[in-house]
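anyone seen this seq b4? input:
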Amino acid sequence: MKDHADRHVERWRGWDAIAFDDDVEAATVRIGVLLKHLRGTKTTAVAEVGLLGVEYDTLHVLMIRDTPGHASPTDLARDLGLSPAGMTGRLDALEAKGYLRRVRDDDDRRRVDVEVTDQGFALWQKAMRMRGDSEDSIFAALTRTELSTLNRLLKKLTLAAGDPS
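predicted toks r here
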């Protein structure tokens, strides 16, 4: 059975203006299709729980830290690639909706940290569960051995691309 990548490569094969390796092109197209699908399932899950994309992204960055649910606004801004003013606006909106709160440090009253509220955590968790279900359904097409092999191969590609961590 042919997929989008097969048809793409067939359309471009033999065209002299651009040389490419059929297998590299097909793999690149397939990765793009999967990425588009995963982004779409994220968008759907976030909308279904009633969050905006930027709200989910902020809660997600807040939750996946070494200190889950707690961070300084500066750390969040850095992790999200936002200016301090942009972060302040985003935190104001999330706090107004009850998804997080700012907490003053007991030892240094000038220091403010951000922490997720029960409501914010519940919405993030529900969206994550929906995303996870969608991801599980895609990868159910593979055996455990195939999934393990895929992960080893993707890791090699990630490292070759310059792992951002």
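The two ends are 37 Å apart (CA to CA). The longest strand covers residues 100-104. kinda curious what u guys think
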